[in-house]
Fold these 4 entries.
Entry 1:
Amino acid sequence: ERMKTKKKTKWELFRKQGALQVFVWMGMIYLIIFNLIPMFGIIMGFKDYSITSGVKGIFTSPWVGIKWFREFVTDYKFGTLVRNTVMLSVLKLIFTFPLPILFALMINEIHNYPFKKILQTCSYLPHFISWVIISSISYQFLSQSGIINTLLQALHLTSKPIGFLTEASKFWGLAVFLDVWKEMGWWTIIFLAAITGISQDYYEAAEIDGASRLQKIWYITLPCIKSTIVVVLIMTMGNLFGGGLSGSNFEQCYLLGNSVNAATSDIIQTYVFDVGLSQGRYAYATAVGLIQSVISLILIFASNFVSKKLTNQGLF
């Protein structure tokens, strides 16, 4: 009888949470279809699979072991691809991770509520603009005949157009700048939410003790949002090769990259796209993508381990 009552109670609770359960299960179904099931395709990286073979499928294709991994490591592009991927990702980590925190602290110190809301809204609106649109705008503004170069020459600040999109040395700076402009406001929302949850009693006590604004930020605000910062940092490290907070390395390099700036715009993701879809080498592309995924997984565990040792905060 107690078991029946317990089951009845659980069923009633499930019915009360009907709408919430629908949302949860829809999310679970999405993850199963688009994240879990495709994991079986990893085996393709160890097979001699070809979509043009007709008869042989992924599981029936001959096993080749680490042939494709060895081919990628010995490819003449390997050094350039790894260097570009790592450098672009590290630069984005250095600039795009701390700036949303600083921006959130700045917005939190603004006491003019209407101006504060307008500033916050304007800062996160670029997040909703696709990289396709941003790349088109970039060409309009930064091409040799674009608005920026025309203005610089009209003001006699330069004698000839600057190759923002055609000089390899300028690509990393351009990518980081656009990434900060697009995503800084969006990630600021998370840190602002964490700051909002801090009890005002701490600030009132600090004000009574004569603490300045900077002291309240340093000794109250930052320590109170430390757990949020750590979680976001671990997520950023896990997606470091994808672009950090925004995960936009591929979109930027594919849309803004060209044969002229290829020395700095070619990364592992664009290489995978090229050999996988353009050349039809799906097995080889799977192996290369798997290498990047394994490295990302290692970075997640490593950053979580270091974070737990230093701050006693982590994801798991």
Entry 2:
Amino acid sequence: SSSSAASDVYKRQNHDRIKKVNKTKQLFTHISSQGELNITLKEVDVPKPKPHEIVVQMHAAPINPSDMWPMFGPADLSKATLSDDKTTLTAPVHPGMLPRIKSRLDQTLPIGNEGAGVVVAAGDSEKAQALLGKTVAVLTGACYTQYCCVPIQACIVHHDDTTPLAAASSFVNPLTALGMVETMRMEGHKALVHTAAASSLGIMLNKICLKEGVPLVNIVRKQEQVDLLTKLGAKYVVNSTSETFKKDLYKAIDATGATLAFDAIGGGELASDILSAMEAVGSKDATGFNTYGSLDNKQVYIYGGLDFSPTTLNRAFGMTWGVGGWLLMRFLGKLDASKVAELHQRVADEINTTFAIESSVELTFEEALTPQTVVKYFAKSTGGKYILNPNMG
């Protein structure tokens, strides 16, 4: 039949593509039990895709804060060096830190949480074949590679006019921002507090909340970040380095009724300050004895670790509160498949608006391994995003 003949042609074309991409250059991380980090560019085989898998030629893989610990662990990057052949970055790890990473010692591990590219080969299933030539974003933990073989379930399929660069950050930041709002609704809160709010993720969260009418309190550390978010349309922005921070935070929480916070900092007293402000708002009209504080549950989820010092809680927020961790993948695991698909589709539909990368710097493999560049993206500062383009250069 004509359809069968067309299918045979498709398979022959696909077979030709597979033959062309049997090798790939890929970054790996290794920390030895003697305390040496090596990030190494190696040439490895590209697996032949199984029926439900595709091979993606990667053109854009962001270097996210969440990639830092898998890549470098606790290595001292101020002492990093690059090999003469430009393929291996080496840095020392203090012996006292090795027990913290015992489970990964002496193992060679792939790196790169997410990225995007074009499907150049596919398995035999109809769904996989249908993705040939499409721009897709992938989430694998092994995206710092020229060619990535992944199951189709690990992909977001983008519109034909979306570039891989635009699609590079489709998972970690967009789904985290959407997940924060979904968590708020699932747990019965009506407003949010977010720290490190001028980050790429924070800007996405502001766009979502403005679009959906969700009150959002933004906590930042610099006046220029206040100005940035205010220009974007944010109504409540407070500066944690201001002398009036606690008063400003109280006013913002009072205005919004926020009882849920997502904290990217992790250490210090910020989580405690947020809970205390929520309690002060919740108890402001209390009369008589108020031994156990306000009845409304006050929750802070720590989802990042910009500050690895201890989280200090000064117990001034009653007895109805919680501090816990929040991870994107565990949150998504609580949702049914149709809801996850709905979130994926929203990311694809709004990748050039709500979820657009504000600015980016593209790096080759060699540039990504250069110590001076590593220091820049390891700083995890607010602003542009560094994007590895494995097929550039």
Entry 3:
Amino acid sequence: MFTLHDAIDETIRKELSAYDDLTASLLVRRGVTTKEEAVAFLNPSYEEHIHDPFLMLDMAKAASRVAEAINSQERITVWSDYDCDGIPGGSLMHDFLKKAGANFTNYIPHRHLEGYGVNVNGIETLAKEGTTLIVTVDSGITDVEAVARARELGIDVIVTDHHLPQETLPDAFAILNPNAREEETYPYKSLCGAGVAWKLVCAVLAHGFIGRELIPVGWEKWLLDLAGIATIADMVPLTGENRVIAKYG
């Protein structure tokens, strides 16, 4: 860790020789110590610095399940948090599922009457209304009881979240959360909840479904405004992939 007045190591200063002393000093104090990291930090590129969504554990399984639900017109419910991460994430899922012609609804729990996360009463209500697939946004990783109840009622749950789990993970159909498991394969851990949801959208589009050919290639970029708002509002680190999402959003 560098303090304000520490001199930069000569090797690192040589790596950052393209930048003046002030810029190099600021970069180093943000953990940027190589030419490649400096380029990515100062000039984030959608083509070069966005990771393949299928690198995330369970992503292939989740994308296939969402595509199957779109194809068969199953009732999908997007269960999102009520903050400025969950709401943009739920909105981008809404826009994607509408574009895809899915049979879906959005559910946002009441802050005071239901509280944060997925709850059993809400699950039971959705089951009565015909939901067979729930996609959480910015929540779900600690909701073991509610996810178990969903499974009992024949509902598959895909958890998309970025919060830390408890000792026991929910028994979900798929868990998309770079911070949930030690064996996680995704190279970037600091996405916000909407960022993880956006990665799922990218994966479903790449997987394909009936009517996919009607959606222009690259259409997912139109959802980056929502992902970008959530990235800023949820105060996740503006490093790596988050810088790309914030810039293009």
Entry 4:
Amino acid sequence: MVILHGSDLQVGKPYRPWAAQAFVALARALRPDLVVVAGDLTQRAKPREYRIARTLLEALAPLPVVVTPGNHDVPLYRAWERILAPYRNWRRHLGPALDTVTRVPGATVVALNSSAPRRAVVGGRLDATQLAFAGKAFGGAPGGDLRIVVTHHHFVRPPDGLGGRPLPGAGALLRAFEGMGVDVILGGHVHQTHLGTSRALVEGVGPGIPLVACGTTASSRGRGAETGENSLNVVRIDDGTVRVESRRLGKQGSFVPVGERVFAR
């Protein structure tokens, strides 16, 4: 299973169209089994931004694509819209469902909307209803399927402390996902590549779930060691390992490998 994992396109003022085109070009060359965009497709959740993001996603066809909302995909300054109809533009341009199940040969992918426009604005939340949704999806998955979770917000803070507060109750959430047999969790939000495992918060036997946070794929808002940089991940999963190849946008205009980490399953 090969997954092309991007996040934080942020169509709007920070958007870099050339980085987005490099993302599409890599998808066409790599032909992964799945493309994941882990939130913040827009900067201010405006219709024009969503139209551009939709065009970008359509350029990935016929590859299967999984997306999930981020905190920038709901209005920030349009307060009444954020309270009364925060996902209006998302639903109009990207589809009605906020929590989704996608099945591709060999994998069941559950994307959970971690944005919380009425409670956290920038930070995120996952609730018991969403855990039940994931549990039902994985419970009905074909035997032997990989189990993949996609959220925008992070579970563990990067070492430099940037990226804001992790999801509240992250330890309990990860214990629940371990109980579901989840193989990997893909996310974004922190604007830099951050790789870890659920063992950072949950004691247990075995290596834990790989937590793979993507950096900023197509905007100028990279942080930490990736300040001013654009990045993505190529995730390869086999019977024994989850192999994460980190890539950054090079001067030649393509995403080139800069490092790799291998997790035992």
